[in-house]
Amino acid sequence: MSTTTTVETMTKPNIGVFTNADHKLWIEETTPNLNALKDKKGEDLPEGWVTVAIKSTGICGSDIHFWHAGAIGPMVVTDNHILGHESAGTVIATHPSVTHLQLGDRVAIEPGLICNNCEPCLTGRYNGCENMKFLSTPPVDGLLRRYVNHPAIWCHKIGNMSYENGALLEPLSVALAGMERSGVALGDSVLICGAGPIGLITLLCCQAAGACPITITDVDEGRLQVASKLCPRVKTYKVNTSLKPPESAEEIVKTANGIRPAIALECTGVESSVSNAIHSVKFGGKVFVIGVGKPEMSLPFMRLSTQEIDLQFQYRYCNTWPRAIRLVEDGVIDMKQLVTHRFDLEDAIKAFETAGDIKSGAIKVQIQSEVDT
């Protein structure tokens, strides 16, 4: 298959899903331009880069937040901005310097572009890159397009894996980073706060790791039912928002038959949920916060202090994608049930409305473009 043949079969224009500081959401043509793709056939790509036809992209909670709120902490939408960072697709053009990827290869895209010069990069913790350009985080445009150019080194081959699963490797990477840094081990009692996509994937990871008992909390009964289907032995607790954190914690511990969690994996970033986790874990336990919350919050300091509870945080991920691919390929982690809604790229506005409506029952909404399998 030649680059020319592959490129010349493209007929649909490149469109992207945009938001802006006025919280508008729309679809319009974007770069790379279809005619440019046809004419250049990869020769004008930067050294080491490829062009990918995006086939599936998941909508993340951060995408909804950038649309609705216009910011997450210091990351602010100030101009027209393309969303999306959970994507998989097919390589359709390569720079001549790229040898490990071929036309037609299925790839999942790791969306962070690093400098390779700062201390976090040089010590292997590149998620802390001081010059990070993370696609979909303002002002860097995201992956919700039909075609994107991207460094080949961050395009991970996925073999015959479905594009849906390929796009789910990004949230799986978030969960794997949390598993590794929190130290969840065989037999650990674990509390998972939040049964959204990250919480549910974290549940699948804890199940695979042999944690027991596992308890998961959420304010939505429907999501807890999904958790029970994914992991029949999980214990579920619907959060009573009228209770104070110490009271909620006692109910959570009762749900786990009186066993306090050694590790709480907090996947919401909500202040009250973080406090629930702190009041739940045992002496010497750990609360590991995966979720993203408001810039400042009030936490039970003396509970942390007198119980010697470690409070630890996570920012994205690093060195997780090869592991994530192996786990999905070998069937250790099965995420197929998480994709509840699918929309064509041209219907992306409806996809976002569905993802942003808790009444829709959506877990993971994916936007697809000419997907075969």
Q: Topology, please?
A:
Elements: H1 3-8, E1 15-19, E2 25-29, H2 34-40, E3 49-58, H3 61-68, E4 71-72, E5 75-76, E6 81-82, E7 86-94, E8 106-109, E9 112-113, H4 119-122, E10 133-134, E11 147-151, E12 155-157, H5 163-182, E13 190-193, H6 197-209, E14 214-218, H7 221-230, E15 235-238, H8 245-255, E16 263-266, H9 271-280, E17 286-289, H10 301-306, E18 310-313, H11 321-329, E19 339-344, H12 348-355, E20 364-368
Parallel strand pairs: 13-14, 13-16, 14-15, 16-17, 17-18, 19-20
Antiparallel strand pairs: 1-2, 1-6, 3-7, 3-11, 3-20, 4-5, 7-8, 8-12, 9-10
Helix pairs in contact: 5-6, 5-11, 8-9
Could you explain the architecture of this structure?
- The chain has 373 residues and is of the alpha/beta class.
- Helix content is 30%, strand content 23%.
- The chain contains 12 helices and 20 strands.
- It has helices spanning 3-8, 34-40, 61-68, 119-122, 163-182, 197-209, 221-230, 245-255, 271-280, 301-306, 321-329, 348-355; strands spanning 15-19, 25-29, 49-58, 71-72, 75-76, 81-82, 86-94, 106-109, 112-113, 133-134, 147-151, 155-157, 190-193, 214-218, 235-238, 263-266, 286-289, 310-313, 339-344, 364-368.
- The strands form 5 sheets. Strands 3, 7, 8, 11, 12, 19 and 20 form a 7-stranded mixed beta sheet that branches.
- Strand 14, helix 7 (221-230) and strand 15 (235-238) form a beta-alpha-beta unit.
- Helix 5 packs across helix 6, helix 5 crosses helix 11 and helix 8 packs across helix 9.
- The longest helix has 20 residues, at 163-182.
- The radius of gyration is 21 Å and the shape is globular.
- It starts with a helix and ends in a 5-residue tail after the last strand.
